[in-house]
Amino acid sequence: MKNLVFIDGEYYEDNDAKISVLDHGFLYGDGVFEGIRAYNGKVFKLQEHIDRLYDSAKAIILDIPLKKEEMIENILDCIRKNNLSNAYIRVIVTRGKGDLGIDPSSCKRASIVIIAEEWDALFGNLYEKGLNAVTVSIRRNSYEAMPPGIKSLNYLNNILAKIESKIKGGDEAIILDVNGNIAEGSGENIFIIKNGIIYTPKTTTNLKGITRETIIKIAEEKLGYTVKEEFFSLFELYTADEVFITGTAAEVAPIVSVDGRIIGDGRPGRITKQLIDEFKNVITDGTPIFNHR
């Protein structure tokens, strides 16, 4: 069965889903997006994802031609039309069709694309044994050049990091910022644990992850751990007791080695596994797909 893709109010089979080659999203990566997950008939943190989508659009002066409530209904309708209870949903807002010039004023109306399909956890069977990560030479864009809170269609910085990590034989990349501090993975936020305290970088240099916020809340409010948002270096990463990454696609994934240094005892750590278990409990809450009003 072919997936149905929503484009500007109409549905198309995925092979026939198209936008103009003059769309600024295609030409320049000029647009924003969100990745969202649905579990067992409920969309997890849907409102939070929509809020972040509209914040990203506002930051680049991109007018989304739908109210938030309308966007939510279209997302749920797309999932229903594809008859999915468990899904990964990609919501894309491009600047729209314009001319070949870089000036976005030629783009008269933004385009909205919604894709919903089945997609398993990003790292397959590595959640049980843990990921082997490598640091990469590519640096996270300076926040002075590109604010990381904007989830834009231009992901080349992240893609280059992913390419380098694969060349080096890693399961995932760890990106440093321009000051040499740890920033994030190729598409995830990063956490370390040392002496029972959980650390994660400030979001000055990485995306304000929704899974990141969920894990911080679980750690502090459900499990009673101290979480500190502060920058840390390669030394703190290499000598951590536990390391894990979080993201909508990745969920919560343990890292058991970095650049050949074994983290802890080389297996997913105790606190990381607690957080994974609690995360599996909270994803059962969300916006109902089939009886939403």
Automatic annotation (TrEMBL):
EC number per UniProt: 2.6.1.42
Keyword Metal-binding found: no
GO molecular function, one term: L-isoleucine-2-oxoglutarate transaminase activity
Cofactor(s) required for function per UniProt: pyridoxal 5'-phosphate
InterPro entries for this protein: Aminotrans_IV, Aminotrans_IV_CS, Aminotransferase-like, B_amino_transI, BCAT-like_C, BCAT-like_N, Class-IV_PLP-Dep_Aminotrnsfr
Catalytic activity: L-leucine + 2-oxoglutarate = 4-methyl-2-oxopentanoate + L-glutamate; L-valine + 2-oxoglutarate = 3-methyl-2-oxobutanoate + L-glutamate; L-isoleucine + 2-oxoglutarate = (S)-3-methyl-2-oxopentanoate + L-glutamate
Keywords: Amino-acid biosynthesis, Aminotransferase, Branched-chain amino acid biosynthesis, Pyridoxal phosphate, Transferase
Gene Ontology biological-process entries: isoleucine biosynthetic process; L-leucine biosynthetic process; L-valine biosynthetic process
Pathway(s) served: Amino-acid biosynthesis; L-isoleucine biosynthesis; L-isoleucine from 2-oxobutanoate: step 4/4; Amino-acid biosynthesis; L-valine biosynthesis; L-valine from pyruvate: step 4/4; Amino-acid biosynthesis; L-leucine biosynthesis; L-leucine from 3-methyl-2-oxobutanoate: step 4/4
Residue ranges that the Swiss-Prot or TrEMBL entry lists as coiled coil: none
Entry function: Acts on leucine, isoleucine and valine.
Family the UniProt entry places it in: Belongs to the class-IV pyridoxal-phosphate-dependent aminotransferase family.
Name of the protein described by the UniProt record: Branched-chain-amino-acid aminotransferase
Organism: Methanoliparum thermophilum
Lineage: Archaea, Methanobacteriati, Methanobacteriota, Candidatus Methanoliparia, Candidatus Methanoliparales
Encoding gene (name): ilvE
